[in-house]
Amino acid sequence: MSAGRPKFKKQIMTLEDLLSIRIKNNKNAETKKKFKEANMTKKLFLDLYDILTLLNYNVKTISKEFRLMYGICDFLCELENGEYLIIECKTHCSNTYDNNNLRFSFATGQLLTYRTVLSMQYRIDKEKIKLMLITDEDSLLTLDVINTENLNIDYLVYNEEGVKYYGKNGQTKSNYK
User: Fold this and answer.
1) DSSP string covering 15-48, please?
2) Under CATH, what is the fold of the domain 35-95+106-176?
3) Is residue 177 scored above 70 in pLDDT?
4) Tens-place pLDDT, residues 41-62
5) Across 52-168, where does the E strand assignment appear?
6) Quick one: pLDDT at residue 31?
């Protein structure tokens, strides 16, 4: 080996390491989005760490608008215990032809899909991926879908009145302001 040539040490990176680096260095946070939802996620981002801490999530890192192989989740959180939390946000639509209850409940399918993609892409056990839906108004249909289908999805309502967290069986567990 010549004297002027730098020495390189071979470093093997695991998929977990790669994911952790991508979460910390996410440059995707400015993708185009519906204006109302973009405003909600911007405000939520400022409060999210505190909200998750109150809900007993030990958050290591929060990444906004994380690009997966298929789709972009609003937030991907790396948790201290080696688990992950995918968060999808939806805002109500004032268009009379849209049904907010359906809009919010369809987001549960998005969350399940994102979990599958994250699991496949980074070979993470699905049990290590938690899911959360955050909307800006209550939706009994969404709550009913989550509960009757036994989906393990946390549901929060985040708006100017505060934060409402729904526990199992649709009961309000906490109301933070």
Assistant:
1) HHHHHHHHHHT---TT----HHHHHHHHHHHHHH
2) Trna Endonuclease; Chain: A, domain 1 (3.40.1350)
3) no
4) 999 999 999 999 999 999 999 9
5) 59-67, 72-79, 84-90, 129-135, 153-159, 162-166
6) 44
Handedness of CA 115, 118, 119, 124 (dihedral sign): negative
User: For the chain, which residues make up each domain, given as ranges?
Assistant: 35-95+106-176
C-beta atoms surrounding 151 within 10 Å: 15
Q: What is the pTM of this model?
A: 0.81
Three-state DSSP state, 11: coil
Q: Which residue has the higher pLDDT, 110 or 33?
A: 110
The answer to whether the CB of 101 falls within 8 A of the CB of 140 is yes
